[in-house]
Amino acid sequence: MITMLIISLVTLTIAYLIMTLSTILAKKTISDREKNSPYECGFDPKGSARLPFSLRFFLIAVIFLIFDVEITLLLPIASTLNLTNIFSWLFTSMIFLFILLLGLYYEWIQGALEWS
Q1: Are 84 and 61 in contact (CB under 8 A)?
Q2: Which PANTHER family did the record assign (predicted)?
Q3: Would you say residue 83 lies in a domain?
Q4: Is residue 4 part of a domain?
Q5: Is 53 helix (H, G, I), strand (E, B) or coil?
Q6: Long-range pairs for 11-17 at CB < 8 Å and ≥24 separation?
Q7: Is the separation of the CB atoms in 46 and 40 below 8 Å?
Q8: What is the span of the domain harbouring residue 90?
Q9: pLDDT, tens only, 33-67
């Protein structure tokens, strides 16, 4: 228990020192106007660089992340089939898939209400 505490403290101390050193060493003393200006293939920018973010794109990205995490949770289910009882495996798999389907249905309903 004490060794875990010591290792954790040493790790946190090293991480804190590295972050502190990087903030001290990475300070920009000279602000370069060309580096701070937006770059569009050598042309002057046509519009503002601070356009509002598309909510539709954001929702698609969030749904992609959710399904990406779901796939990483679903893949081990198939590999644990040989290691567990078939009934407990089937029960836990069905509960997990049911929760996922409830979430998908909820997102589908919220999306339908939002777009109407």
Answers
A1: no
A2: NADH-UBIQUINONE OXIDOREDUCTASE CHAIN 3
A3: yes
A4: no
A5: coil
A6: none
A7: yes
A8: 58-116
A9: 666 666 656 666 666 656 676 777 877 888 788 77
